[in-house]
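Lab notebook, bench 4. The sequencing result for the construct came back, and we need a structural model before the next group meeting so we can plan mutations. Quick request posted to the team channel:

Model the 3D structure of this chain.
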Amino acid sequence: MPTEALLTDLYELTMAAGFLADGKGEEPAAFDLYYRRNPFRGGYAIAAGLEDGVRAVLQTRFTAEDLDYLRSRRSPGGARTFSDRFLDFLARYRFRGDIRAIPEGTVVFPNEPLVRVTGGLIECQLVETILLCHLNFQTLVATKAARIWEAAQHGTVLEFGLRRAQGPDGALSACRAALIGGADATSNVLGAARFGVPAKGTHAHSWVQAFPDELEAFRAYARSFPDECILLVDTYDTLGSGVPNAIRVAKELEAAGHALAGIRIDSGDLAFLSIKARAMLDREGLGYVKIVASNELDETLIADILAQGGRIDTWGVGTNLVTGSGEGGSALGGIYKMVAHNGEPTIKLSANPEKTTNPGLKKIVRFYDRDGLMEADAVAAEDEDLSRGEVWIVDPTNPLRRKRLTSPHRVEMLEPVVASGKLVRPFPPLEAIRDRRREQLAHLHERYKRLYNPHEYKVGLSLGLWQRKERMITDIVGNGRADGAP
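Done. Here's the predicted structure in token form:
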């Protein structure tokens, strides 16, 4: 059976084979992984997927079966695609390079490197697809979860998306990312076991339909699960029968020394129904019974329900969370570009300024204002000293937009993860990543967290890096290296 070593785009392998044939395989190189626009038309993203991506990179091994498959490839003319020399190289391949990255759970912004990979040209090229695959998807879903968590005013969010996820592997990746971004538990039992979080759920409408009437269905479920019973009350009539029957069962559980955990509403006007249900429960002294809502929820609907006075305690979010659905969503446009080669900075030019890359090895320094809130991020050449004094940053897409930064509270963002093919330190547990997300969002001003028309957080190049970039553009265009047209 072929292994995940082949989980890559074909052009990564053809380029690697070409580099080896040309004698360029060991030439030192550096690549940045970043994205250009926040998902969901939002003001930020939550970094996720790093651990899975790095582990995949370090565990890549080409088996005999993988190599047999590659050996069998032929061009339309019948020639083998890959030489024996290259296949022998892959048989011995191990990633030996370095990786620096922004930790998972961190608030991040467009056009700043989330990951920097350095090493031999071939090994840097071969990790592109797998890193993008993991970080693009998990960052998208973690960001969606964070927006949902914020919209729910930091209430309880359950990830209910297994049946709507992009296949089994997507379901597990989405589960992990959702937990990073703000979900507290999951309906996915494998995800709960793997990530050490609670598995949560209720029952389906089919449970109620399988009994002579709704009340008997509720009683049967309560008999089986008296201490974790959540009853789905909208099979027939939420307020006319569902909630009244749930109240009867709650009283019966009380008499037996147990407590009804909650009711779930899965259809209808969730704001109106939850208000009425809360009043009915409270009148019967059942203030402890929680109200769970589900049914195609997302951050905008949750915000609207709460704005209408909805009385929902727990939000079960499925499809829109695990698929990253919504306006400006569905995919994170993360990219991976060479920024240095043979010890010299490199640049890619484009008629679109935002697609012109920022050259060289870089650092990211985040500045915080006097209130401890994130003020701006400076992307600078690695050898620049931004530890003290005044720093000016320039918007690379509009050089007239500049910002002066003077705050002494500043933090470097890229941390060492892998050195010479070895992990530098253990990855943090999931709960520590979740804590980081909470702490990060607490230090992000509300204007960047708005669901609609958020303020644009400032990410700019240091003056030194901006001037280097301008000199390189002038040199390339002036010497005709871009064939006269950048």
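The chain has a mean pLDDT of 96.
Will bring this to the meeting.
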